[in-house]
Structure formats: C-alpha cells, structure tokens
Write a structure and sequence with these properties.
heterodimer; A: alpha+beta; Arc Repressor Mutant, subunit A; three-stranded antiparallel β-sheet; elongated; B: mainly alpha; 2 domains; 7 helices
C-alpha cells in the first residue's frame, strides 16, 4: 500500500492526466461510461475508479468538450454515449502537446539530477 | 427488464436525494448513467455488493459530482459580458414601450372603470329622480344603465392587461439578470 503522501501526489497527478486520457480514448469513437471505466481499469496508476471517472465525464460535458447521445448498445437498452465535440478535438491536440513538452522537461530534470 | 434489486434501488434513491443541488435534467442523466453502470457491471459477472462498494458511499460520489459541476463551473455557453449586454439591451428596447403601455393601460383602466360606475349610478339616480342638482345629464337614464357596465368591463380588462404585462416584465427581468449562484461563483 502507498503511504498517504505518495497516494495524494499520485491522485493530484492523475487528476490532470485522466482528462487527457479520456479525451484521447474518445478520439477513437464514441463510448459509454462502463466501457470507458473498464478500459481505464487495466491501466495501473490511471485506474482512478468509477467514482472519479463518471463525475469527470460530466464536467467535460459541462465544458462542452464532450456531448452525449442516447444510442442502442450491442446488448441491452440504449445507453448514454459520449463523443468529442470540435472543442474537445482542439483540446486533445493542445493537451497532447503540453504533455509531450512536460514529459521531455521532466526527463531532462531527472537526467541532469542523476548525472550530478 | 428485470426488476431492480432493492440494494440498487436504495443506492440510486439516496444518490438522487444527494444530488438535489444539480440541474434536474443533469441529475436524471447522472442517475441513469449510474444505473446503467450497475447493470453493466453485474451483467459482466461482478457481484452487486462489490459493484456498489467500488462506486463508494453515496455521499462521497455525490460530493465528487458537486465538486466537478458546482464548485468549479466553467460554463462556456455564455460569457459574463454577454449577459450584461442582454441587460443593457432589455433596458434599451423595453423601457420606452413599458412606459407607454403602463401609462395607457393604467389611465384607461382607472378612468373607464370609475366613469362606468359613475354613469351607471347616475342612470339609476335619474330613474328614481334622486339625481342631485349639480349633475347635468343630457342623455336619457337608460343610456347610463346601458353604457356603464361596458365601460367598467373595458376598464377592468385594461387593468388586468396591465397586471399581466407587469408580471411578464418581471419574469423577463428575472431571467436576464445574473443569478445569485453565478454571482458567488
């Protein structure tokens, strides 16, 4: 089990990254809540739990990065599908760039730290 | 559809109550979505108790929704400046017509209903011969009786119209003015 401080750090970090990941997932096409939750579930530190992901999906919708449609699902009743809006697409691209820049910068930091 | 398990029904009921601060349509969609989640997860073979445990206590889930949706609203639908533009527009377009409508309807309402009553009373007085000396009535008494009620009716209609218009304006103003909740955000 992680210590309190470490898990707090992880959850802070995850909060921002999760948004990027969900938007990226939806770039592959519309999806519904349970599917999104299970796809993120296998991803170790990113498996944030449904009680984080569902509220986050609603916020992304409120920010007009996603919109919802009721669609027939392969099995069972119609489900609420989320899909990217044009705003959402722009946001994925800019968040993706931010993330790449961040990863590079962190890599440089850790690299110089290790050598000294 | 199979009958909902009592545990599920209770969880969703509590969630509905806990989310009363949300917009009703939003709340309905949220609860529907959690219902679908429970159905999907149990269909996939997970025990119901475990599914509900993973969702966490209702209070905690509701708080997560409120944190995302209420504490940090980034509603892009309408920037604040637009709202003030609407207020200014309402005043610019609405104030002159409102002034004219209130004056016209108000004076028609008061003068017609008062004079209608007066003419009617005068008509009765002329019939009974009790018409005081200072009232000069050239028309026959039945004219007063016939004309009085329609005058009163027109006057009351005008007053009713005035009240309806004031209510309408109040509703429009309430809709256009920024809400208290936005002001504190």
């Amino acid at each position: 089990m992680q210590s309190g401080e470490l898990s707090e750090w992880t959850s802070q970090l995850r909060r921002g990254v999760l948004e990027l990941c969900i938007l990226h997932l939806l770039q592959g096409g519309p999806s519904y809540g349970y599917e999104i939750v299970t796809r993120l579930d296998g991803l170790g530190p990113l498996s944030a739990g449904e009680n984080t992901i569902y509220p986050l999906l609603r916020r992304l919708k409120a920010e007009r990065l996603l919109d919802t449609t009721l669609r027939d699902s392969p099995a069972g009743p119609p489900r609420l599908y989320y899909r990217l809006t044009p705003d959402g697409r722009t946001r994925v691209a800019s968040l993706g760039n931010e993330w790449q820049a961040m990863v590079k910068a962190v890599a440089v930091c850790m690299d110089t730290g290790d050598r000294s | 559809m199979t009958l909902e398990h009592p545990l599920t029904a209770r969880y969703l009921g509590k969630l509905t109550d806990a989310l009363s601060a949300l917009d009703p349509a939003e709340r309905r969609e949220v609860v529907e979505e959690i219902r679908d989640h429970i159905a999907d997860a149990t269909t996939a073979g997970r025990p119901l108790e475990q599914v509900l445990e993973a969702l966490g206590p209702v209070d905690q889930l509701a708080r997560a929704y409120k944190v995302e949706l209420l504490l940090n609203p980034k509603d892009r639908r309408e920037p604040r400046s637009w709202r003030w533009l609407r207020v200014v527009g309402l005043i610019a377009l609405g104030s002159l017509p409102t002034f004219i409508i209130c004056v016209v309807l108000g004076s028609i309402g008061i003068s017609f209903s008062l004079s209608g009553v007066a003419v009617f009373v005068a008509g009765i007085a002329a019939y009974t011969g009790d018409l005081p000396d200072w009232v000069q009535m050239d028309a026959p008494p039945w004219v007063g009786l016939a004309v009085g009620p329609p005058l009163v009716l027109i006057g009351l209609l005008a007053l009713a119209g005035l009240i309806a218009y004031v209510r309408f304006v109040a509703r429009v103003v309430r809709r256009v003015l920024p809400h208290e909740r936005d002001a504190t955000a």
